[in-house]
Amino acid sequence: MKRWRYEKFIRGTKISLINYLALSTIIPLPPKPIFFNRTGINLAKFQSTFNLGLKHVPSPPQTTNADIVDQFNEFSNKLKWTRYFINQEPLPDPILPPRPKPTRQFHLRTTPDITIALSGTMDVLNSFMVQNPIKIRQDQTAKRIKELRNTYPHIVFKAADKNLGLVALKLEDYNQMVETHLLDIDQYTPIQFNGDSTNLMFLPGFTAVKSKYTQLKNRYFKTLTTKSEINQATNWFKSFEAKQWKLPSFYVLPKIHKPGNTSRPILGATHWITNPISIIASTLIQPKLLSNIIVKNSEEVVKKLDFFRSSRERHFAKRHTDDQIFLVSLDIVNLYPSIKLDLLYQLFTGSSDKLLLDMLKFIFSSNYLSYNGKSYKQKNGIAMGTNCSGDVANYYLLRLIDKILEEKREVNLPSRYLDDLMFIWIGKHAELLNYLDSIQDLVPGITFTSKIGSEIEFLDISIVLKNDEDIYWYTHQKELNMYTYISPKSCHPVANLKGWISAELTRYRRLSSSEKLYQTTKQLFYFRLIRRGYSPTFLKRIFEKHLYIPIAVLDNHQKVIPLKCKYSFRNNINLLPRLTANYLKNIQLPTHRITFCWLGSRSILRLLTSSDLTKAQKQLLAQRVT
Fold first, then answer.
1. 3-state secondary structure of 531
2. Gap between the terminal Cα atoms of the chain
3. Of 60, 174, 243, 593, which is the most buried if we count CB atoms within 10 A?
4. For the segment 319-373, what is each residue's pLDDT rounded down to a tens digit?
């Protein structure tokens, strides 16, 4: 972006020259690339499409009348069922999985407010559909993406690791990246199966897996006490079993920020037979995760830092004359594969954990996966992509690492988010180095990388120690981040565009220890939005409303029953939330609130990339092998 344009923005936002010089060094001129072509093929024809960013949503097909009616019927059905359960049943036990989505119409007597609201809402929708007929529109972006995939089947498109942009790879190069992981005989073993999920009965060991699944399900039912709990759990399991079990697909994300052809392995197991058992195991483990060290998000870290700063005199009073203060961050290397299953199972040997232990053994002994028509089984570590993995890893480190940190006198404010740790050390530097060496060998297989200094990054927070006396923090601005925000040309409702910008400003406000730091991050955010194509006029009102407010506790929100509608550029579709609100606001439920929400369409990321290879790509690889 040219310098005169920056000067124009400076005049419009009253940014000082000093801040301008600082910002101009942080905001690169020209912008960093967000598309990385590693194929050697000229794809300049599609550059304008790539520059829109992976989150851009091309204009989808028009929202049809059938779409509107189907979503209204789903909303009406869920609303009636919710009212029925509120009247007929006690609130479900929090240990149970969530109630399944209703799949059939059920004619129930309901309250007058719901009857009147549903009737009025349907009248509004019918009137809208008559007055705003569908007009067929062709979106050029979607056409270019389809042309790109059809013309170049030998190119694989993947999102880069760390959200750095889009990467185009030759099919054989991507295949080599994947095989680098799958050919590791210490981690994976090949299975004689073609990977076809329609013939799972021929998968070696699947009969035993299915039998074990049934046994665990029956044992779980025996722990339930009331008929309503059993009915709820039965319907919940049926919602999974009604769909076909599918082998998890294995794929990788290229690490373009590191030398060589390195990649991060990813596995999604949402449709695998272990998934419902994994969800229940996760709910059983969560009550055990009681620790002052575990943090759930950045806001909890900020609250701990704020408390430490307000009482720093008490903490610093522990210092001896030759003590120093250091900020320390630790990162566990390859946590999931490094967890020793035998050691993990020993942590659940109590009689009260017998069912949970058997569930974990079932989940982690059934780690099947597929790639390019071939099947594999993971041998070591806990499964990626299954619901309970994060909770299991948290409990593993809670029992083996966290207590050691709490017992050390020099360690202050220890905090851990899964495999990332930080603490403040008040003591001698040599003793700190010895301590870090000692915890390296504390747990078999667990190794750390560490950073010591007066400034560290933890999650999305930069923490700075000033003159060994004060501590402050602000939202971390990653050097590798391309800031490819949603384009203003994307097919998003205007309210959604305003909403995510406002939410990002709120995040910056909560993660800043002072107004000055918040204003600096806010200015950076403004420049990046201008660079993405947003107009100053559009941004002005949003930015003026956001002022710095100290840390506050978030309110607990009610559950939501949404009336959904697929968003498109159909005439006057933006009026639907306001038109239906007159009736939806009259529905009164003690445990839920009613709202209107938009259903998004597929973004460029979803249109260009997929977890599995396409049929054409599999054929090309097969031809090269033969």
1. helix
2. 50
3. 174
4. 666 778 899 999 998 888 889 999 999 998 876 789 999 999 999 999 999 999 8
Q: Decide: 188 and 250 in contact? Cβ < 8 Å.
A: no
Strand pairing partners for 592? 559
* Structure-model confidence comparison of residues 8 and 365, the more confident one: 365
Label residue 316 by pLDDT band (50, 70, 90). Answer: low
Nearest to 156 by CA among 166, 142, 147, 141: 166
Q: If DSSP codes are grouped into helix, strand and coil, which group holds residue 77?
A: helix
Token look-up 């399900």 returns 217
Strand residue runs (E) in 333-460? 368-371, 374-378, 411-417, 420-427, 448-453, 455-458
Write the single-letter amino acid at 22.
A
- DSSP-derived 3-state class of residue 476: coil
For residue 470, what pLDDT is reported?
Answer: 82
- Name 559's bridge partners: 592
Task: State the number of CA atoms in the 13 A half-sphere of 317 facing the CB.
Answer: 6
Strand order from edge to edge, sheet including 374-378? 188-191, 374-378, 368-371, 249-254, 263-268
Helix (H) or strand (E) holding 358: helix 354-364
Tokens of 565: 């509608």
b/e for 32-41, b at 16 or more Cβ within 10 A? eebbbbebee
At 196, is the secondary structure helix, strand, or coil? coil
Q: Which residues contact 396 (CB under 8 A, 6 or more apart)?
A: 339, 343, 344, 347
Phi, psi of 615 (to 5 degrees): -60, -40
**What is the pTM (predicted TM-score) of this model?**
0.82
Nearest to 63 by CA among 133, 139, 141: 133
Contacts of 87 (CB under 8 A, 6+ apart): none
Beta bridge partner(s), residue 36? 167
Cα–Cα distance, 424 to 410 (Å, whole number): 8
Q: How far apart are CA 584 and CA 588, in angstroms?
A: 9
> For residue 366, what are the contacts with CB-CB under 8 A and spacing of at least 6?
209, 212, 272, 273, 274
SS3 of residue 167 by DSSP: strand
- Calculate the alpha carbon distances from 376 to 233, 249, 253, 295, 366 in Å: 32, 10, 19, 35, 11
Neighbours of 544 (CB within 10 A): 8
546: exposed, middle or buried (Cβ count in 10 Å: 0-12, 13-18, 19+): middle
The Cα–Cα gap between 491 and 573 comes to: 12
> For the chain, what's the residue count?
626
Contact 244, 605 (CB under 8 A): no
Task: Give the list of residues 6+ apart from residue 395 with CB closer than 8 angstroms, or none.
Answer: 285, 288, 289, 347
| pLDDT of 386 | 86
